[in-house]
Design brief:
Layout (H helix, E strand, L loop, with lengths): L6 E6 L3 H16 L3 E7 L4 H8 L1 H6 L6 E3 L13 H8 L5 E4 L6 H10 L3 E5 L6 H14 L3 E4 L6 H11 L5 E12 L7 H4 L7 H17 L3 E12 L5 E12 L4 E10 L8 E10 L2 E8 L6 E3 L11 E3 L6 E5 L11 E5 L1 H19 L5 H18 L5 H4 L1 H13 L6 E4 L5 E4 L1
Parallel strand pairs: 1-2, 1-4, 2-3, 4-5, 5-6, 7-10
Antiparallel strand pairs: 7-11, 8-9, 8-17, 9-10, 11-12, 13-14, 15-16, 17-18
Helix pairs in contact: 1-10, 5-6, 7-9, 9-13
Length: 429
């Protein structure tokens, strides 16, 4: 292991997902010798200061930290929207960039990373236009760069089990389903109110895409039509956004999936959100069923006070997605002493892409430029075909659904269809 090359990681975006999942996952990968240097770049240094001062992160990852861009010595209200370009340009080539910015900013940031010869891990959805996903796939493959999309539900063991059983024919064929993901009300008081406006996003696009991807991941069925209706509301700052969305997705075999999303799960409710999936399948003289209750999962705690595990004292604290648990220290290959370690499929998803990037770089250390590119491209195509880590090649159906969803919700829920062929496109029915 001592001869393995560790990679630098730069996170673009210092918001909620960086605090709650990405940074602690990268910290642990640093401990394990996969990651070397960590940087976080944001629009201002205010979220970076919050990350630095987080008691939970300090307790879990003592003696670990990151390089902050902008510097913490800058004025907290000084906005530097193009600083990320300077940070990417200064990185050694073929390291890793994690893109964790608002949805509509994914495309320019991902492209900037690729143009600077950096591998990419992007939070979902990758982009909001199918043509952009195709462009990213082409540029990344041409340069031998890996792009992973953080559809973490693919790494839930329940999902992996369902995918295998579905492929073996144990359920029959999917025909009717319902999914739900309602995020907490307090999201309305976060930075969401500055970017989650009706002209840019909606709950179906933001979180419904998880279950759209999951149904495709399990069944392989292609969506062909999408209808999404939204309910508007006002954020505390007065901006208008879709607070609720109800979508329907029709598949190539005629199956229908209903998807309910929103920013409205009660802050006092047990658990941090409300989410589930149920899929009915038709078989020979019988029906099959896939049911995932992603809200409860069998663990409940009642605390003496609110400690941030969802906002309420009585709480469903499933360890399946992400939790910090005691860590003995293990074989400390990187920096950092005992504290806590992340567990769950959220961490597994982050680790899978970062480990894949490190694997690629370690596989080509002794190769010349031409052989290195061929080796990189071979690993990328193999991962595309395996279909576990989401990549532009194996998940861009989500961009078509997202594009259709945005077209539909802006037209009062009218059906938008996905037209296949050599150049797939979206249009009103």
């Amino acid at each position: 292991m001592s001869d393995r090359v560790a990679i630098d990681v730069t996170i673009i975006g210092g918001g909620m997902i960086t605090n709650d999942l990405i940074l602690p996952s990268i910290y642990h990968l640093e401990r394990m010798g996969v990651v070397k240097n960590i940087s976080v770049c944001a629009l201002t240094n205010a979220p970076l200061r919050h990350l630095k001062e987080s008691q939970e992160l300090q307790q879990a990852f003592p003696d670990q930290g990151f390089h902050a861009y902008p510097s913490l010595s800058e004025a907290p209200d000084k906005m530097l929207p193009d600083l990320y370009k300077e940070v990417l340009a200064a990185m050694p080539s073929r390291q890793a960039v994690v893109v964790a910015v608002p949805d509509q900013l994914h495309y320019p940031v991902v492209m900037e990373a690729l143009k600077n010869d950096q591998h990419v891990l992007c939070v979902k959805p990758l982009v909001l236009k199918y043509a952009q996903a195709v462009e990213i796939e082409g540029l990344a493959f041409e340069r031998g760069l890996f792009v992973g999309v953080e559809y973490h539900k693919r790494f839930d063991r329940r999902s992996l089990m369902a995918r295998r059983r579905y492929a073996l024919g144990h359920f029959g064929e999917f025909v009717m389903g319902e999914a739900k993901m309602i995020e907490p009300y307090y999201y309305r008081h976060s930075n969401f109110q500055n970017w989650f406006t009706t002209d840019k996003s909606d709950p179906f696009t933001y979180v419904g895409c998880h279950y759209v991807d999951l149904v495709y991941f399990i069944t392989g069925l292609q969506p062909v039509e999408v209808s999404v209706s939204g309910i508007k509301g006002k954020f505390p700052n007065g901006n208008e956004g879709y607070m609720w969305a109800n979508g329907r997705v029709r598949y190539e075999n005629g199956a229908l999936l209903s998807v309910i999303n929103g920013l409205g799960y009660p802050d006092a409710g047990a658990g941090s959100n409300d989410q589930c999936l149920i899929m009915y399948c038709e078989g020979e003289d019988g029906t099959g069923l896939i049911e995932h209750d992603d809200q409860y999962r069998g663990v409940a705690h009642c605390y003496l006070d609110e400690i941030g595990c969802g906002g309420s004292r009585y709480n469903y604290v499933s360890p399946d997605f992400y939790r910090l648990v005691p860590w003995s220290g293990g074989p400390r290959l990187g920096r950092g002493g005992p504290g806590a370690m992340p567990v769950g499929y959220g961490y597994d998803s982050i680790a899978a892409t970062i480990n894949m990037i490190a694997h690629i770089e370690n596989e080509v250390t002794s190769l010349d430029v031409a052989a290195s590119l061929l080796k990189r491209q071979g690993i990328i195509r193999e991962t595309d075909q395996q279909g576990i880590i989401a990549t532009p090649a194996n998940s861009s159906i989500n961009e078509l659904v997202t594009e259709a969803a945005r077209l539909s919700i802006l037209n009062d829920g009218a059906w938008a269809k996905i037209v296949g062929g050599e150049k797939p496109r979206v249009e009103m029915r």
